[in-house]
Design goal:
about 300 residues; alpha/beta; binds adenosine-5'-diphosphate; binds (4-amino-2-methylpyrimidin-5-yl)methyl dihydrogen phosphate; HMP/HMP-P_kinase_dom; thiamine biosynthesis; phosphomethylpyrimidine kinase activity
């Protein structure tokens, strides 16, 4: 590997009003495009942000499961992060799969060198929708250590339980109670997510470090295609926060967008397991039907062979 000395950081220009927020995803790769950095970049773009990505790990996975994980040397993550922050002003950071403690330590050191005002959203990815582990046991402890440099953490219910060292909540009230305990202990905002509980309602809640709980109502989309929902929510949240300046409004907007993306996911026809959401459902509708067609089933893909001659 060739390395070169870091150039002194330029005076990064502030974001001009109306320009897309420059959002960095620090996460793993999912070649099926539904989770990981691929989902993050789509979510950032769908929220009108400019997406950037530093890779922590490469997975060999599809919609059915994770076959293998390759973690490059942690120094290479450091090189990616330094190359970026030496040059680009970053408006928000979203953290996803960290794989292990060494990777988390590199990221922790870098996060403490960038301006403390840069908002950081942590999705503490531990286990994929398919049930495969994406973080080792030492990594769990390291992720807890990262919380002190994060503004928001977005665990699903099993991840919330691991972060607290408690059993997984079985109902919404217990889940919110755990969110309140984690927010107070780690002094940050916790997004508690109802996706893993049964029922027609799928609420999320923003819990503040002072114990305030503000719920965002949601209806369940009856679909198996939930691959990457956690990645998509956290990346969209980081992006919307830059414009909104308010975590609750950013969460409400992101959840509304994600519900529509979940509803349209089945029409993508990607894979045979838990397929992805359609991050661009709204854009697709606008492009194909002048914005008048319902999302999903409103247009048909071109006939096979009817495309541009190769
Ligand atoms: N079937 C569903 N219908 C509507 N919203 C859902 C559904 N499943 C998950 N969500 C939402 O997707 C987001 C991610 O939640 P969750 O699936 O719990 O995270 P993770 O991907 O980390 O397991 C949350 O906002 C949650 O409320
Ligand atoms: C590289 C990578 N990162 C994260 C997830 C979690 O995805 P989900 O949101 O479905 O739990 C994943 N499957 N792969």
């Amino acid at each position: 590997m060739t390395t070169r000395a870091a150039t002194p950081p330029p005076t990064a220009p502030p974001r001009s009003p109306g320009a897309p927020p420059r959002v960095l995803a620090v996460a793993g790769s999912d070649p099926s495009g539904g989770a990981g950095v691929q989902a993050d970049l789509k979510s950032i773009a769908a929220a009108d942000g400019y997406g950037m990505a530093a890779l922590t790990a490469l997975t060999a996975q599809n919609t059915c499961g994770v076959r293998d994980v390759h973690v490059p040397p942690p120094e290479f993550l450091a090189a990616q992060l330094e190359a970026l922050s030496d040059d680009v002003a970053i408006d928000a950071v979203k953290i996803g799969m960290l794989a292990g403690a060494d990777v988390a330590a590199v990221l922790d050191a870098w996060l403490r060198r960038i301006p403390a005002t840069v908002p950081v959203v942590l999705d503490p990815v531990m286990i994929a929708t398919s049930g495969d582990r994406l973080l080792d046991a030492a990594g769990e402890t390291a992720v807890r250590g990262l919380l002190s440099r994060c503004d928001v953490v977005t665990p699903n219910l099993p991840e919330l339980a691991v972060l607290l060292g408690e059993p997984t909540a079985r109902d919404w009230q217990a889940a919110v109670g755990q969110g309140v305990r984690l927010a107070a202990r780690a002094r940050l905002h916790v997004v508690v997510k109802g996706g893993h509980l049964p029922g027609d309602r799928v609420p999320d809640a923003l819990v503040g470090p002072d114990g305030t709980v503000r719920e965002v109502e949601g209806r369940r989309v009856d679909t198996p295609h939930t691959h990457g929902t956690g990645c998509s929510l956290s990346a969209g949240l980081a992006t919307r926060f830059v414009r909104e300046g308010d975590w609750y409004r950013a969460l409400a907007g992101t959840k509304a967008w994600l519900t529509a993306a979940l509803a349209a996911g089945a029409d993508l026809g990607v894979g045979q397991g838990h397929g992805p959401v359609d991050h661009f459902a709204a854009v697709r509708t606008a492009v194909h039907d002048g914005g008048t067609a319902p999302v999903g089933g409103g247009w048909q893909p071109a006939r096979a062979g009817a495309g541009v001659p190769g």
